[in-house]
Structure formats: C-alpha cells, structure tokens
C-alpha cells in the first residue's frame, strides 16, 4: 500500500468526527450501522431508566427530559456539522481550483 492509499484508509468518518469534536484520534471504529448503534444505546438507557424509575409517571417525566436534551444536542450538532461541512467544501473547492 502506498502512502496515498494509507491516507485514504485513515479517512474514516468516525476518525474525523473524533478529531473535530475532541482533538484526538478514535482508535476503535464502530462498524455497526447508525441505526443499530442508536438502538443499542437507547435500549441500555431505557432499561436503566425503567430500573431507576419503576413508577410509570416518574419514568415518563424523566424520559421526556432525556429526549428533550437529546433532541437539542442533535439539532446543535447537526447545525455545527452543516457549517463545518460547508467550510470543508469551500476549502476543497479552493484547493482544486474551483474557487478563488
């Protein structure tokens, strides 16, 4: 494998995400599809919430707060991702001579 192939081998979305969010390299890439990764984490969370909040009303209150928080995080990071993607697209355009 030549050095260019090695660069592309390292260009994994999870590696890039980890570097942009935390300034470090992600060593373990999760090969599972997005849906499976989300469902797995959600199942663990819901099991713990059911354990900690066996009363249905308490469970509904806490799970509503969790989903509200998760929704806000999702919105904020989607907006950040769109802006970062746009900046990267502009830089790529400049690098290949499409933009001056």
Subunit organisation of the chains: single chain
Please, what is the average pLDDT? 89
Largest sheet: none
Number of helices: 4
Helix content: over 70%
Alpha-beta classification: mainly alpha
CA radius of gyration is: 19 Å
Distance between the termini: 34 Å
Describe the structure.
The chain has a domain at 52-100. The two termini are 34 Å apart. It has four helices and no strands. The radius of gyration is 19 Å and the shape is elongated. With 100 residues, the protein is mostly helical.
Structure summary:
By secondary structure, this protein is mainly alpha-helical.
Give the key terms.
mainly alpha; 4 helices
Helix and strand layout, with pairings?
Blueprint (H helix, E strand, L loop, with lengths): L2 H8 L2 H10 L11 H19 L3 H40 L5
């Amino acid at each position: 494998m030549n050095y260019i192939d090695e660069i592309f081998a390292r260009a994994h979305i999870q590696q890039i995400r980890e570097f942009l969010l935390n300034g470090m390299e992600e060593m373990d890439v999760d090969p599972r599809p997005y849906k499976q990764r989300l469902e797995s984490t959600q199942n663990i969370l819901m099991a713990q919430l059911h354990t900690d909040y066996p009363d249905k009303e308490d469970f509904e209150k806490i799970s509503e707060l969790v989903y509200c928080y998760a929704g806000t995080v999702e919105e904020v990071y989607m907006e950040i991702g769109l802006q970062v993607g746009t900046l990267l697209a502009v830089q790529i355009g400049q690098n290949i001579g499409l933009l001056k």
